[in-house]
Amino acid sequence: MKMQRELRWGMRIIATAILSVAWVLSAWAQPQDRGPAPHVIVIGIDGLSVDGVAKAKAPRLRELISRSAWTMEARGVMPTLSSPNWTSMITGAGTEQHGVTSNGHLRHLVEFQPVLRNAAGIFPTVFAALRTQIPTSRIAVFHDWPGFSDLLEKDAPDVLQHEHGAARTVEVAAKYWSENRPNLMFIHLDNVDQAGHENGWGNSTYYEAVARADCYVGVILDMLEKLSATQSTFVLVTSDHGGKGRSHEKNVLEDIQIPWVLSGPEIIAGHIVAPVYTFDTAATIAWIFGINLSEYAIGRPVLAAFRSPTTMARSVPAESAGRSCAPDRGLIPTGAGGSPPLANLSHNNQHN
Ligand SMILES: [Zn+2]
């Protein structure tokens, strides 16, 4: 009897152990619960000028703007080259902090080190912040310009993929989003910048390139619509710099002013009066996800874009409050005197 009892107990223990191992294995095998983390798609159109948005045939952008919080007076950082500006956009830091002073980093040129370096040897990006603080997040980066991948931690995204050409890049990105619903997807498109360098900014060839980029934005918007995800997904369209003549490295407003257009849940459609800088993009993404950028970052979330900021991802500590207010009345917003023609944008937006 005793032996039988012991045998039964032994069998139970073995069965329990097998079940436990099976449970652990199945937990590993199953996709992890991604939780209710938001979905953000950033479409960065290299070299898209404010003038380009205003004058090109861009029906999809206009439709997006009509339901977005937007400004055409956002600013990049100096110098108005691609790498410093993309880096500021994804780190929330200025050139002074991240130290990417030119495209020379592609040749391993380092003029000065960043004020803060992570294991990848760079100023931490919002991709790394999301990966660290919400490890289960799905992050994807598709880039048309190969140099973009050197600006972020290669192990932060689930997918970091270079594609040839803007059409292909957006096609692959849309397919990936449909199949994987990443929390954060960044799409870099290069065709507008290429047109600017080849034929100059602000001419018919350039505007045609902007019109093509508009179609690419449309591919993403159509994909979201088809998946009934338009209302639940943040879409941010912006650029690294504008341009004038055949370049974008002069100290002129046409180079440094960029469009910044954010649609999504709880967004107040209309013109953002508060100042917006490209480094605020990383801070705004971080804020949407309820994560923190490094304390060395200077970007602030663009709270003016949100309907009820306090009920969003997290409450914002006073010291890191975003730019939710218009500038002081005594100060003159510097858009005055330098704004490009926006008349054909304003009729699309009742809040203008
Ligand atoms: Zn660029």
Compact summary:
This protein is an alpha/beta fold. The protein is built from 12 helices and 8 strands.
Number of helices: 12
Unreliably modeled segments? 13-35, 314-320, 333-352
What is the strand content? 5-15%
Structural class: alpha/beta
Oligomer, anyone? single chain
Described by the principal axes of the CA atoms, the overall outline is globular
Number of strands: 8
Description:
There is one protein chain. The protein is globular. It has a single domain (36-255, 274-301, 311-351), classed as Alkaline Phosphatase, subunit A (3-Layer(aba) Sandwich). The longest helix has 28 residues, at 2-29. Residues 13-35, 314-320 and 333-352 have low confidence and may be disordered. It is α/β, with parallel strands linked by helices. 37% of the residues lie in helices and 12% in strands. The site of zinc ion has 6 residues, from loops.
